[in-house]
Amino acid sequence: MNKPVIVALDFADDFECINFLNQFPKDDEKLFLKIGLEMFCQFGYPFVRNLRERGYNIFLDLKLHDIPNTVKRTCEMIAQWDVQMLTVHATGGSEMIAAAKEGLAGSSTQLLAVTQLTSLGQSELANELQVPLESQDYVTHLAKLAYQNGADGVISSALEVPVIKAATSTDFLCVTPGIRPKSAQVGDQKRVATPAHARSLGSDAIVVGRPITQAENGHQAYVNICKEWNK
Ligand SMILES: O=c1ccn([C@@H]2O[C@H](COP(=O)(O)O)[C@@H](O)[C@H]2O)c(=O)[nH]1
């Protein structure tokens, strides 16, 4: 599979979401869709199943963060759903990450650990979270923790991909949200990169929401981003 552009489906309404997906030609290469907390909390597993049955690849972005036993049991359930990717927070710690991986055993779901959210910049890290590290070092530390405890990859900004790969392995997946084409509004994201920059930094997949889902022509916006990403 080409390195994917993963579309973040952050819609309040499932009809709106299906109308959005219907803009895409049926013979398009299989779309990779991210279902996050907003849609999962409202529409739950039946929505995930519906999209899997339509043939989409699914990144289930639930960002699990709880004690190891709870995360393991939750992952055992999700392991039956045949989704391609699932997230937990790396800050849940080594035991929790390992427990998530154990819970997914026997499935092909890839476990990704969220490092520092792309909506948090250096000043939030220092002043709000009281982490006395540069983002690059904090993200690398969490990525190593995830790598050593069985995760298949991490969520980070594209800006940290080179240091993560150097500290772990070139095969360790770096999936990067916080993607903004040059003309797009940054909104609540802090650590951002264009699709072309993310590619040059070595991202394995980019996650793009509003620049596609809120565009006047969502399909065209997706095509433009794919072109820039695949250049
Ligand atoms: O660090 C993170 C982790 C997850 N996300 C998710 O990605 C998309 C980005 O959407 P945009 O509209 O392109 O900003 C969104 O669903 C987040 O929950 C992230 O942005 N940063």
TrEMBL record:
Positions of substrate binding: 10, 34, 61-70, 118, 180, 189, 209-210
List the protein's name. Orotidine 5'-phosphate decarboxylase
PROSITE patterns on file: OMPDECASE
Example of a GO biological process term:
'de novo' pyrimidine nucleobase biosynthetic process
Q: Which organism is it from?
A: Companilactobacillus heilongjiangensis
Domain Orotidine 5'-phosphate decarboxylase as annotated: residue spans: 4-225
Q: Which GO terms describe its cellular component?
A: cytosol
Question: Pathway it belongs to?
Answer: Pyrimidine metabolism; UMP biosynthesis via de novo pathway; UMP from orotate: step 2/2
